[in-house]
Amino acid sequence: MAWTLTDDVDAYQTAAGGLLSSEPVRNTVLLSVLASLTRIGLAAYGDGAPLFGSWSAGGVVSAAVLQTPPHPMLLTGLPGESADELAAALADRGVRLPGINGPEPDVAALGRAWQQRTGTSGHLRRRMRLYRLGALAAPDPFPDGAARIGTEADEALVTNWFSAFAAEVGDHDSPGQVVRSRLASGQLMLWEAAGEPKSLAGLTAVIAGVARVGPVYTPPQWRGRGYGGAVTAAISELALGRGAESVILFTDLANSASNSLYIKLGYRAREDRVLLMFGD
Alpha-carbon distance 190 to 96, whole Å? Predict the structure, then answer.
């Protein structure tokens, strides 16, 4: 049993692609990030070289990780001794680990192993919940306006809103290439009222039957009017129309309003996740 760490995206796809696709709802972020790195290039999320890792037991890959610096490491479940072995492999490689994002028990296991290995303690940045759409319900009451798919003419506005969203949730901001790619692919939707955009929702491509909604952002001056719920419902319907068997999204558990909203739209809780950060 051992970890293989590499900067070769094709080798990682060959090694871990089957594992990731076997549970596409749980592994949605890993799958969509991998797809973006393959489609846009290795600098899609920043200038640092991505790091990929897969763990084999008995010749079968049963765990995987992916990090695009300066973002936290994404991970699948970490069975057996894989968390301890991963901490050792990362430390031996001289990796600077800014944080970990994944299922709560697996993040906790790697966090403990990393602290024991390096002496670096982590702090919980965010608790999240993964939701999957059941039967889509229309917003009630339904706000004024209508949804439309974003175009290249919206790039400046959407980039600013992506940056504002990132600032609000405390994430690193490098939206440029991702925004351009999503606009070109028709994966961004705006809610317009009175001839002016009021809210935004993004969507990943359908990968292994799964599409993920996010981000959803409404500027502060337009909140409380139903625009966020309306654009979320519209882009969820778009995902279904594009063949998604599962439409999913993540919420911040500290935001009770958004959790309540998505439940009203027909989303149902599947799994809790955490973001653990080191040294910041």
Answer: 38
